[in-house]
Amino acid sequence: MKPSNSSEIQEDYRRKSETYYERNYLSNKNLNRQFRQELIRSIIQDLNVAGKDFLDAGSGPGVLGEIVNENKGNYFASDISYHNIASSRKRLGELPGVVADTCALPFVSDSFDFVFSIGSIEYIHNFPLALHELCRVAKPNGVIVFTIVSNHSPANWINDRVLYPFKKKKMQKKGEPIYKRYFSSLSQINTILEKDNFKVVKHQYITPGIFDNQLKKINFLNKFERQLIKKFTILAKTNKEIVIVAKSKN
Asked: What percent of the chain lies above the pLDDT cut of 70?
């Protein structure tokens, strides 16, 4: 069974649009998502986006909009779902936003000082093309920031090889679109970025990934995992996600 195509996923976003932001961010109980949001917030603050053009590619309901606005940046959003863009405007007021596939961004080259894609391109089968598009629309000396799913994580391996087949059957029975996250490594990302004359200047592993999410619900295992990774830093590579900051060499 193949993952659903973009039109099916877009339709799924449409059905969820009214409550997506509220369920996933306002009443967010997902500690990993909370940590990622705070990390992205600190990156945006460190980059000094004031007065600069900022693209949020695969923006969802525009969760970076408030952060960019707080830091006086010029926020632009693009997402495959019109309803996500509409949801962003309800919350943020009028904002430049377009319905677009990240693999074919409707912007001329060298348009943005900062291009972010958080929790997005790892769902795109042809993520090298998506990454190329992020690089293309960034200005000379521009910065791109994105997340990938680490292929060094045991938890990711378990999710993909053991749990995902059952999840697919369950989603198929419900008639829901089938999402799949594609794994990659820093070395793969570096190879792709080199073609566009970009280089990784910073990366940070997040979301401990030794135990699967179900096991993390057992509190002492969750604490044990975090202490283990803190003590043996080499285990950071087992974390499930990586935030990458890359800069144009131009």
From this structure: 69
Least confident of 5-9, 53-57, 184-188: 5-9
28-42: per-residue pLDDT in tens? 556 667 778 889 999
For residues 216 and 187, what is the distance between their CA atoms, to the nearest angstrom? Answer: 28
Query: Whole-prediction pTM value?
Result: 0.81
207: alpha, beta or left, given left = phi > 0 and alpha = psi -120 to 50? left
Give the residue from 43, 229, 218 showing the smallest Cα distance to 153: 229
SS3 content of the chain, % helix, strand, coil (to 5): 50, 20, 30
Q: Check if the beta carbon of residue 18 is closer than 8 Å to that of residue 80.
A: no
| Domain annotation for the chain: domains and CATH numbers | 6-248 (3.40.50.150)
